[in-house]
Amino acid sequence: MIRGWEIAMAAILVLVLLVPLSLGCGGGGGGGKVTITIGDVEDLTGPSASAAQWSHITTADMVRYWNDEGLIPGVKLNLVTWDERYDPSRDLPGYEWCKERGAKVIYSLEPSFSEAVKPFAERDRIVICSAAATKPQIEPPGWVFDFSATFAMDTKTILKWVSENDWDYSKGVPKLGFPGWNEPLEVDMDKAISEYVQDHQGKFDYVGAFLTPTGTANWAGQVEKLKNCDYIFWAGGLQAQFLKQFHDAGYTTRFISSMAAVAFRGFMVDLFGWEPPLDGMISTFASPWWGEGDSYAMVKLAEENLRRYHSSGQADEIIYRGGGSYVGSSQSMYAILEILKAAVEEVGARNFDGQAYYNAALKYELSGPVWKGYPQWGFSQTKRCWQDDEMIYRWSAEAKDLVRISDWIPVVIE
Description:
By secondary structure, the chain is of the alpha/beta class. The chain is 43% helix and 17% strand. Strands 6, 7, 8, 9, 10, 11, 12 and 13 form an 8-stranded mixed beta sheet that branches. It has a 5-stranded parallel beta sheet with strand order 2-1-3-4-5, sandwiched between helices.
């Protein structure tokens, strides 16, 4: 079984690394088309690759789809990808690498990247499209646009939902704890939890955050400190060993998790199966789920692209291992390209630059049939986070899948 997993992962990784090669040929564009380059900064081989690589595949597939369908007349999109390896020391080199290749728009799922390059992006007039935003990325508003909810908003949203829908307060105030790594993402989440608890007295007793150096794998101390919690907030798959060590120690709790956890579905199921601690875990997520294509045209498009550009076996593997990464990143990437199209229509393909994209992004709002069923999201002169709503999912051993347990609910604005 493990050997089969390794073979499958190797095959997918080869696919990940080869996909960009088919999108980057020719500097002048075929058939007289103008080539516009998009940068893609992802962790393809580091600790978050088990989630980020699927986002990269989505990005490549969506660029290919827009090229194949000719959705921006006179333009050929070119994707260039930098492996960030979840290493902050590679953030600025990756930014410069994309800039040298002509990228005026850079997409990234890596939180440290968008924080690190924000001032340089403003200087160079290059737009950063983030899908893992922290508060410093978007405040004050600048050249980083967040195509998701910030993780602080996401954290407060699930706390609000749990307090209103999951906990029985006749049992008292629930104890809440948070294990994580001491990095921008979890620091932002810890601050969000503290703020929410302070602003909503009597909803949670916050035992505290126990943040360890990035890369920590031994969580024995944190397990003992959090063993009596009614809820433990979990940032995502990078801290999966905490869940395993907590469970192996014989302790039980209700895990609640950010939207990032959904991207690690295959990794987590491989680790635990569908038994506790996964069964019953509650997660936020920014997108409708697989199989909801009849209600959401965006999900249908994601499913069609997956089958269009990958074999049946590869597609099934991406759905299983990538969890929500592919379907969730599809909506982000489609919006990113819609803004690019609007910028080209406004200034012309040969005059396209980062400033044109920036101007178009400020006016962007969801519209058109592909967004049927979605709330009205968008940006403005002061708003850099497009998403105002999320859904809540429960991990279910009975369904062997994530089951949606809410409609769109407003995110808690900071």
